[in-house]
Amino acid sequence: MANSGEEKLKLYSYWRSSCAHRVRIALSLKGLEYEYIPVNLLKGEQSDPDFKKINPMGTVPALVDGGVVISDSLAIIMYLDEKYPEPPLLPRDLHKRAVNFQAASIVLSGIQPHQNLGVIKFIEEKINSEEKTAWVTNAITKGFTALEKLLVSCAGKHATGDEVYLADLFLAPQIYGAINRFQINLEPYPTLATCYESYKDLPAFQNAAPEKQPDAPASTS
């Protein structure tokens, strides 16, 4: 393991969180051992004062590496990539690096926040369940349309070629959630569908899957 001899990393996670999911993929790709500490978002454990000391925002994931605490998924992934550079999560080619960051940004700022538990709960309370579903579906389809156009000319086996990079870490959880939580059809997005199928052959992605996590309900495994 890459962190042999060092204090084991600690990951505060929730099994269904797509933000935590992408960090789990990074840890798995890097071959890093870590302690999984579940934070049940449905029970409000993210608002516990002890957890707020770790992440004042009250969100997952949060990574503890000795005296270092990081509580944003992209920041965690970049930290891990610099500390444990193999395998690299960004290509050397400048254009492909930019595409990876752009794909990650579309998910990070254009899709995921709209399906955040707190946001959709607020919408459901203020309006109704049907409008909540329409809100989430619109955000996902808009983002997927942009991702499809962005990646169609540079995808190979995976999002930006035949190697796994940052974009794949963001795509896999987002597509998983779109299919399993919101019943989004991937037929209009053949490039994304091909990428998603490729992840099923990668142990690092499968080991990080929500249903494989220790806090996942038994019915999902």
Question: What descriptors fit this protein?
Answer:
alpha+beta; Glutaredoxin; 2 domains; 9 helices; 50% helix; GST_C; maleylacetoacetate isomerase activity; glutathione transferase activity; GST_Zeta; EC 2.5.1.18
Summarize the structure.
The chain has 221 residues and is α+β, with helices and mostly antiparallel strands. It is built from nine helices and four strands.
What's the alpha carbon Rg, rounded to whole Å?
A: 17 Å
Any low-confidence stretches, pLDDT <50, length ≥5? Answer: none
Helicity level: 40-55%
CATH class of the largest domain: Mainly Alpha
Per CATH, the architecture of the largest domain is Up-down Bundle
Average pLDDT figure? 93
Characterize the overall form.
Answer: globular
| Largest sheet: spatial strand order | 2-1-3-4
Number of helices: 9
Query: Strand-and-helix sequence, N→C?
Result: EHEHEEHHHHHHH
Largest sheet: 4 strands, mixed
Amino-to-carboxy terminus distance: 26 Å
CATH topology of the largest domain: Glutathione S-transferase Yfyf (Class Pi), Chain A, domain 2
Strand-pairing-aware structural class: alpha+beta
